[in-house]
Amino acid sequence: ATHAPVVEKDCTSITPPYEKLLGKLERVRELLNHRPLTLAEKILYSHLTDPEKSLAGGGKIRGDAYLQLNPQRVAMQDASAQMALLQFMSAGLPRCAVPTSIHCDHLIQAADGAASDLERSIISNQEVFDFLESAARKYGIEFWKPGSGIIHQIVLENYAAPGMLMLGTDSHTPNAGGLGLLAIGVGGADAVDAMTGTPWELKAPQVVGIHLTGELDGWATPKDIILYLTGKLTVRGGTGRILEYFGPGVHTQSCTGLATVANMGAEVGATTSTFPYTANMRAYLHATGRGPVARAADEAAAKGYLSADEGCDYDKVIEINLSKLEPMINGPFTPDLATPLSKFGSFVQERGWKDEVSACLIGSCTNSSYEDMTRVAEVAEQARAAGLKTQVPFLCTPGSEQIRATMERDGVTTSLQDVGAMVLANACGPCIGQWKRDDAKGKENAILTSFNRNFKSRNDGNSYTMNFLASPTIVTAMAFSGKLSFNPTTDSITLPNGEPFKFSSPRGQDLPSNGFSLGNQSYYPSPIPEPQPETEVIIKSDSQRLELLEPFSSHFGPQNPRGLELPALKVLMRVRGKCTTDHISAAGPWLKYKGHLTNISENTLITAVNDEGGDINVAFDHDRGAMETASDTIPTIAKRLKSRNQPWALIADENYGEGSAREHAALQPRFYGCAMIVARSFARIHETNLKKQGVLPLWFVDTADYSRIGSGDTIETIGVATLLGGDANAAIKLRVLKRSGEAIEIPVKHTMSADQLNWFRTGSALNYIRSQMA
Ligand code: F3S
Predict the structure, then answer these.
(1) Ligand 1: residues within 6 Å at CB?
(2) Boundaries of each Aconitase/3-isopropylmalate dehydratase large subunit alpha/beta/alpha domain copy (predicted)?
(3) Reduced to 3 states, what is the DSSP secondary structure of residue 704?
(4) Which DSSP symbol is given to 557?
(5) How far, in Å, CA of 637 to CA of 626, rounded?
(6) pLDDT tens-digit profile of 235-287?
(7) Whose CA is nearest to atom 3 of ligand 1?
(8) Among 104, 109, 150, which is best to mutate for testing ligand 1, by the most ligand atoms less than 8 A from CB?
(9) How many whole angstroms separate alpha carbon 478 and alpha carbon 495?
């Protein structure tokens, strides 16, 4: 297609420093004896703070080495940005070290349509938006206000560039990988590393090669590539791995189609997904006003930066022949339950589900590109010409103001509305459960969405809602039939006149012939705004949702008579079995307190099991005056210890803190006075988060020692002073004074690096950063 000329933006701040990256890559190649590299390795290693340090020895790196990296950009959504910003503020820096953006998308609730939903949600979340906006102004962060769009769509349209490394405080950050970069989802504390210019650490992921051959045909779309792959890999198959696509099939996909594939790499737990630079990426950059980025990328590609080396070695290769791929429907309740469309009718029958669809939803960060929307408009047009209307509620979430305005200008919105669609605000809405859906409460029903996640209750809070994932075109066609078993590629719908109507496969258009319409200009922030240090960050004194963070004090201040050993610690409890970040800091209704550490701490460990008694949310206060042992909730006892200035320790089982990067799970115990956690083993990300907040994680040398320490015991460390004195191999022991009066010694081990010891000594990573700035 020919495209209208586009006004080019000033791309200075968004063009990767390719020359510098290529220079670093040269050093990396020498260190690795010029072995051929995957694309993912090239991008990662060219962002190393110090290649010599990270790649020393040149031996096995992937899956083994810890990389210290300098990401180029950070993006944050409105829910996770709150704690990230509060932490950043407590570092005391005047501005962010890298370009950073905030996107108000998660807090917008869908109910009656874009305009009124936006207005209502802004009022009910006003104080959070005011806080985010004022912090953005103070620190020079680009602020995308409510209604501007969904974080990942805006990043793809404005900030993503081939070959860059960026972080985002949202698990679907990898969406930007559609432009051939590495975009990684992290917790707020990790984002703060990049925002403060501190190297960000990542265990070098393995690289899985996905070889795409053939061409998609008929109703199959890029969404079906990832739905199929999710079925193959399962929800854990990508953990600790980057998915790197290659082969001729990559080049036949649009850039936005690749973004859909990258987006849902999160569903298999992948660190991120990426693709070699393609002509369609170049076209997308030009169409979105980023010609300068495209030209710079062309040059970098010519020097071999933006694709894998010939003969590179993948940890595993998966073959997908696109010509054989048919549309998929995944779910319910897990994205890896993948069923080809042709078998879905019998699958519904076998399971004995009612053959009814109750709502169809399209759009979201996963599937609201111009290509997706023109494809669904074609389905809608075919149906309208036949006199059909949608049979069930049909909701559409545009990913950004640019998409919304272009859809409107090009008649796409009218095509959808003519058949009964409701267009929602440019925000997450039903994808994140922000859907005021009253008609299905408590009822078993089935919905189809073009979103990415389908865990129980995710969309409407109703655990009886079966949620199926499919491409936008399949979801749209299903809305006209209202039947779960309908296969639009083969089945007909009977028209009122008795005639059968059958859809033909829709095509769509990847980029608008008349260019993108930017829509409402007030949604666009000025690029890289200068910080306004005089701005006061708005937090109401009586706010229940936001609270400034007080820096944690060092364990080694004058109050500690034991010098560089930890002060004597009381054991709060011994946690039994699985204790995920959800057990430590529950989600659900607590999410509204994400920016208020005091309030959210009331949920600390409330679903953890106390090994002494087997109860949930029960701890004991053995020292409560002269009274007998008193049992109470875990947060209550922890708070009581804090009020007595009594630091405490926790004893934990295997893989403590698994599940997510949620930094609240480390912040909250620390806030209540936790100084040390001794576990049989730790989940790696959580262990790092504990270190960041100044909590010492220790591992039992003999895991049987776990049961030798109980609540109310007093622990003194032996050897921590030697460790802090610079001896990384210091033997560490715990001297445990049992409540019975018996004293025992238990050997433990640590995983603290030199940097992490600095965090521990000063009380937190942020304290250390602050001390370095002073
Ligand atoms: Fe928002 Fe859903 Fe995407 S919550 S960021 S639209 S996955």
Answers:
(1) 105-106, 150-152, 170, 172, 364-365, 428, 431-432, 452
(2) 41-482
(3) helix
(4) S
(5) 16
(6) 889 989 999 999 999 999 999 999 999 999 999 989 999 999 999 999 999 99
(7) 365
(8) 150
(9) 15
Taking the domain 569-773, which CATH number applies? 3.20.19.10
Domains of the chain, by residue range, sit at 18-323, 328-435+443-498, 569-773
Instruction: Encode pLDDT of 573-609 as tens digits.
Output: 999 998 988 899 987 778 789 999 999 999 999 999 9
How many angstroms is it from 491 CA to the middle of ligand 1?
32
Domains 18-323 and 328-435+443-498 share a fold: yes
Sheet holding 316-321, edge to edge: 272-274, 241-246, 206-213, 316-321
Q: Which residue has its alpha carbon closest to ligand 1 atom 2?
A: 431
**Residue 729: phi, psi to the nearest 5?**
-95, 15
pTM of the model: 0.91
Query: 3-state class of 299 per DSSP?
Result: helix
Residue with tokens 């919905």: 447
CA of 107 to the centre of ligand 1 (A): 11
- CATH fold of 328-435+443-498 reads Aconitase; domain 3 (3.30.499)
User: What is the dihedral angle through the alpha carbons of 614, 618, 622, 623, rounded to the nearest 10 degrees?
Assistant: 160
Statement: 18-323 belongs to CATH 3.30.530.20: no
- Per the structure block, which two tokens stand in for 511? 């980029």
Indicate the Cα dihedral angle 246, 248, 251, 257, nearest 10°.
-70
